Please model this.
Amino acid sequence: MTMRDTDRALVQAASAVAKLRCRSAAHTLATAARTAEGRIVSGVNVAHPAGGACAEVVVVGTAVTQNVGELETIVTVGDRGRILAAPCGSCRRLLADHFPALRVIIGPVDDPQVVPVVELLAAADLAG
Ligand SMILES: [Zn+2]
Model:
């Protein structure tokens, strides 16, 4: 799938959140998601020995809380903009169940790609 200008803006939004809010070992990843209407929801992970939550889960909960509707595209950026992180296996399942048409931006920061969440889900299922 082709990277759109709005996709690049979403990466910048997630990067800005990572730069501002990922300043400890408890918060190392920032996710931003955009709706078809252009609303952006963002959040950071919460790492904790008791379990914590991925940034994607925080964003889905925030999206529901704010009643923004269907998420269209999502990206997760590492602290200091070091990576575009692919969702973990559990998040792939959660995202695909909630938003089957979701587009996910992954890959190197300097050469990102957009893939359908269902393709990531298939890859996660193959990996077991
Ligand atoms: Zn996850």
About this structure: The pocket of zinc ion is lined by residues 54, 56, 87-88, 90-91 (CB under 6 Å). The mean pLDDT is 93. The beta strands are 29-35, 40-44, 71-78, 103-106, 113-116. The longest helix spans residues 5-21.
